[in-house]
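Sample A.
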Amino acid sequence: MEKELEQISAVPGVGGSFLCDNRGDVIVSSDPAVLATVTMNTIGREVGRAFVALETAGQSASKIEFVYDGWRLLAQDIGDAVLFVVCQPDTSMAMVRMSADVVIGGWQRDNAAQKRLQRHRAERSSLVSRAALDQGSWSSWAIIQSRGS
């Protein structure tokens, strides 16, 4: 999986990439790591919650792109994990998405990659439990759930 992350990192403007399980924990990251592990875990949890919220609200997504002043982030859901790619603001996101799709397709056909993902298998919905959220977030989650039903 590390080799495939290197392929993504070779796209001009890409600073690095990482893969988080559905709990938001880092499975693997490009070398050198693009962000501190704690930061990658936090991003993994928050984006995982965003995917759960969208699905619950009836607006499922497989990709989310975040645009900031100094960088961009692609988050791509692959079922048992989320692939993240950190980019410079002017990066060709079409090239990044295409590279990510190629890598993910390879992982889906690679038994070793599938076994590695299965070792980290978790339900993403655990990210939105009462114990995992503060009171304000829990109240927002209750509204999303009521509108998604």
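Sample B.
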Amino acid sequence: MYSKCWQIIKDDSKRTFEICGQESNTNFFTNGIHGMQKAGMNVSCVTPPVTGKSSSKEVIKIIGYAKEDGLYERLLNEYREITRRYFGQWEV
């Protein structure tokens, strides 16, 4: 069994991706992506294992996608704005 996995987020609308780091438990990351998907965002994630061939983030490539630095932060801000609007509907 692998001890760590890469956390990679993909913006499927703009065909970009960012490698967010390595983690042994990816539940928080994948649950966040699932929340973004439920909010209507066109995002996905992959969590491949860290192996000898993929021990450096520079060698990781996703076919058809370009790297975008700051993608995760941009998508988090977009998600915060969506949820803020959603909760604003409940004000009395």
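B remarks: The chain is about 35% helix and 25% strand. Residues 54 and 60 are 6 Å apart (CA to CA).
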